[in-house]
Structures are given as C-alpha cells and as structure tokens.
Amino acid sequence: MHRVAAALREEAAATNERRLLVCHGGREATYDACREALGDVPSDGVTVLSEGDILPAEHLPPRRSGELLGTTREAVVVDCHDACHPNALGRAVGAVDGGGLLVLLAPPLDDWPDHRDGFDERLVVPPFDLDGVTGHFRERLVATLRVHPGIALVDADAGTVERDGLTDPAPRLREGSVTPPDDHAFPRAAYDACLTDDQVDAVRALEALADANAAVVVEADRGRGKSSAAGLAAGALAADGADVLVTAPGYRNAAAVFDRAAELLDALGTLAGRDDQAHEVRAASGGRVRFAPPPEASEATADALVVDEAAALPVRLLDAFAAGDRPVAFTTTIHGYEGAGRGFSVRFRDHLADSDREVRELSMSEPIRYAPGDPVETWAFRALLFDAGPAVDPLVADVEVGDPEYGPLETDALVGDDHLLREAFGLLVAAHYRTEPDDLARLLDAPNLTVRALTRDGHVVALALLAWEGNLPASTREAMYEGAYVRGNMIPDVLTSQLRDPEAGAPQGLRVMRIATHPAVRSRGLGSRLLKEIRREFDGDVDYLSVGFGATPDLVRFWRDNGYRTVHLSTSRNDTSGEYSALMVDPVSEAGRALHDRTAEWFLRRVVGVLGDPLSDCDPDVVAAVLAAVDTTPDLDLSEREWRLVAATAFGPGIYDVAPSAFARLALRTLVDGRVEPGTDAARLLATKALQGRDRATVTEELGYVSTRETMRSLGEVLRPLVRTYGPELAQQEANRHG
Predict the structure, then answer these.
(1) Highest CATH level, class, for 393-615
(2) Do 2-163 and 188-364 agree at the fold level?
(3) The pTM is what?
(4) Neighbours of 679 (CB within 10 A)
C-alpha cells in the first residue's frame, strides 16, 4: 500500500497535479491501508473527514467539512464507511494542493451502492422508510472511479491493487514567471504577490474600484485565485484610506480575501491590526477591510464593495448590490461547490449589462494550486456534476409552449443517460442559488422526490422537482404538534408546529421544491404549462399542491396566476436571501380545500398584527402581492363610529391616529379583494401606513412624498373610493357631508 501511495504522490509532485487513492473493503482493513499509505506524510498536512479516529492528524466530522473551504492540505482522507456525503467529498477535493493525495475509504465497491449509510438515513422522509432509498448516486460514483485516470483502486481486504492510478504524463514545459504591469494604480507589491498572469490581470481590472460608477466581474473555476486577487485589491484600497466592505454567503467563504489584504498591508508596512472576531483588517491610513452578511451589506455604506462567491447569492441581493452608488466587484465561481447557483450568469449579468454601470469583465482559467488538466478536478466535475448545465441554446431556442412532451424523468433513466442527467441537474443549478452536490444524491436516491419535465427531442426545456408531503400517521402528527421536527415535510411542519393545526399533516400533499425553465425560452408560458400538466396528472392522487419560496412580487404573481393561494408569510428573513418566505397552496380535493380554507382564514385573522410587528419592514410590494393572492374574504367588521372616522378622514377633518386599527382592517380587505393593484403607490400606502404602521416620516421618505402632509393627503385620496365601495349608508352620509 505504501508503494502505491508513494508512486501516486511522486507522480503528482512531478506534475503539480493531484491523485486519488480509493481503498475499499472492510472498515478496519481500509483504515490500516490508509495508515500505511500516509505513514510518511507530516500529520500537520493531513485532514481526515471521519467520525472515527484513523490517523494522528486533524479530524473533522463530515458535517464540518466546510472548514476546509479556503484551505490547502497535502492529503485529505474521506471516510465513507459511516456515510457518503457528496458535499464533504466536493469540499475535500478542493482542499488538496498540487502534489497532494485525496484518499477515499469505502465499503467494497461492488456492494457499496446497496449499502445503506448515515447519509441515506437523512434521505428518509416520513412516511417513507429506508427501504425506499436507492443507491443510484453511489452506483454512478463507483462507475466514475473505475474509469477515470489518476485514480488508484485498492482492495484492502485482499491486499490487491486493481488500478495503480498512474498516468505516465508527458514532461511539462517549465512555467514562465509572472509579469507585473508597467503602469499600475495599486502598489507594486500587490502585483508581486500574484502567482499567475491571470491573477495580475484580475488585480489590474480591480483598480477600477477607485471609480464610483465601476462594476467589475471576475469569474473562475475553483483554485484560480480570484478571491486572493480581490483581497489584494481590497488591501491596496485600504492602504489608500478606503473603507472596503466585503460580503459573501459566509465569512469563511471570504477568508482568502482578508488573508491577502492583511498580507499586502503587512508587506507595505501599513498593517494597523486584524480583528478576526470583528472580521476586520485595519490600515495605518485609516482604511479598513471589513465583512458584513449579504442582507446587511446591501444597505451598508462603504467606499467600495466586494461580493465574493456572488453566484451563491440570489439575484435580488445582487441587484441591490449593483444599485448602490459605490463601486462594486463581483467574484464568482463558474463551476463547483461554492458557486453552484447560476442565477448570476443567467439572469444577473443581463441586469448588470443594462445598468448605468461601467462594467469590466474578466475570466481566470489558469489554476494556482495545481496544474491545468488535473485528473482529480476532471473526475470531480463529472462525478459531482460541477459543470452541469442546460442544453445549449440552439437546441431549444425555437420551442413554443405547445411543442414539448410532458412526462416523468425516472431516476433509472437519469442514471443511464448522462446527457439527460446533466441537462436536468443543470437546469436545477441554473434556477436556484444554492444547489449542492448533496442535491444530486437527493435527486437520484430520495424516496419522497419525483421529477416532471417538458422535453423536446430528448432535451429538457422545463423541469419541476416535486416532494411528497403529508399523509402522516397520527403518532407522527402528534410528535410534530409537540415540537418534533419531521424531515422533508415543510408545509405540514409549519402548519402544525407554528400555526397549531394538529391535523395539517393528514392530507396528502405534493410540494414544488424547484421549478426551472431553460434560459433561452423563458417568458413563453412553459413553466405555467408544466404546472398545469402536474395538476392534471395528480388530480385524484393528492389533496393539495404547494410551494414555499422567498417572496418577491413577481414570484408571488407567477404562483397566483397558476392557481396557488397564500396561506402563510414567515416572520423571519432567510439568512442568505434576506427575503420573507411565502407558503402557497392549490387545493385539489375536498380535504385539501378544507386545509387551505382554515389556514387562509387563520392567516387573515392574524396578519394585521404580524404586519405591524415582525413584518413591519417587509417590502410593501411583497405585502400587497401576498394579500392579493389570498383566496378568502376578511370581514371588515367596523363599528358605526369607526366608519364615521374613516369617512371623515378620507373626505374631511377626521384624524387617522384616533383608531389606526379601523384603517388596517379596511386596507386588508381592499388588498385581498384586489381593489388596489399591487405595485402601485396606493397599494404601498395602504401596506406601509395602514397595515405595517410605519411612522409618517418613514413612509414619506420611502415612497418619495415631499412632506408628511402630502403623504396623509394622498392616503385620504386612496381611502375615498374605498369608503364609497365598502362603507354603509352612514359612512356615505359622512362622506357627503364633507364632500
């Protein structure tokens, strides 16, 4: 075993590539083989992802594999005996440095797909059990391990080498040195710190951050040094006294930015301090580089903004970053774990191009941590579908709404047709800002998921990932009501544990987890047709269809147009997207209608209080859109005196502040009835002032009125037709008196 590993490491070092050693067999046999293979590797250069103690080295449980992001190791061991975590595997690959070794410990490869482990247990969603989980992901994984170059296979039980993994590469040409630019705005040390000409070009492009109207986009695969280039630019700006704000899905994703910024300031002799608790690097000039999470960063002020791993953030936030008056840089992974969402490349890039920004774009292709053509990177891209994408545009560009065929995409078909799998998974990646390798395993193996698609000539043009929910036994419903979390049942869980409906888990539901339309054929009605086909197919098999998503006015309108109705709006924002989540239901059976009706009625009874407190900062356009999508009519229930007050405020000397709750109930009825169109100033006034209770000064500033007097006068104008529409005779008399 030591001989095999030594040969792999020797070849990897000679080519500045990585190699993969797979030891399969019984647990203890593979552990012994691993110890022998890495016996002469310094322990401080090795990380083991395992629940057990295998080597005298750093050990991390797979759930903490995210700590590998931004680090490099001589060897990483991934123990798959207890569980095969695709996310952990993807993170491990990226952490191995050139000349290093990735070691995979697994049960016998022939039996591995049928072996049920801890990850499979996470795929079990009530009322399904472990018998419903398949092994398609590992079947595909094993197939790639057997054929890709640079991968050695060792049967630890038999002590035999099935593949030595050596590629016998041709000698490489000696790489040239990096050439700094002759003229540059940043200090020369920023370019001397670059490791490739690609990185020099990136830092040079980022000089534009000194211009308030600039937007810089730097794209690259993993390991190309884009975050380091951003860090060098941030350090140079801070050295000149600038306040540089950095945001990313998490601070750890941007750690390289802060490391390089601190190193540059130190090299320049201007490093004043680094506070890892506050996530801040300070320069002697008074400049600094600091971190803020995405929702906070969208509103914070700074001299320049760096958005690292931008593809992992939703388009709404990216638009907010680009809309400010500060220069902004977006660095993003084209393929791979951190940047698995394609909303950036598919949608946001068009928004940015249409803006008033001076946009500079740069792609980095030359790896820094290992040589181009590294076989382990090639294997990981195929095995984990890092580079999966939709069909090329010309294959589907002429598709109209009635052209494609509707039907299921069975997992057997996906596993057997790699092109179909890549197109299907690629669409999911393009549609959602956080699609991960774990999601590939869920797609192929989870018993509660099913896929429906529109295809033309075998190419996927629209796809929906559906999750079975509900139909839970009484014991599970009782546990859920008492606070137990029941995996994979989002709608029943929220309705039961939060909204206190003990029977919400009884009806059979089908939730649309993801829906995606090919970018080349969006806005042609294909998504709506797909939803109609799904409803037609499952009519009689389910009680309701549902969806949960980060609410935006356009998304709420889309689901409303397709028959889904609001039953809940969350009271806390998503940490990454900064959006409040809407739950919407399309009843199919009588049981589904009963669930919808009682939940929607409960929503309307409580929503005024919710909007006035935890949702007081919700986008008023979202509030109006969500209420317009409610399929239940709220009672006005205003007393005679309240009607006189409302009418007098609309037409005469009435004072709004005497009884705000009366105006809130009228605003609620108006928006639910659709008397005022969402997205208009009238709807925003009713949402912000009457329902959310924001003070006059805030409403005036946010809606662009010249004074609080004009704001309240405009509110009166909005109220007048509502009094005429809803008010009883005494309200009409009051209005006529002043009118």
Answers:
(1) alpha beta
(2) yes
(3) 0.87
(4) 16
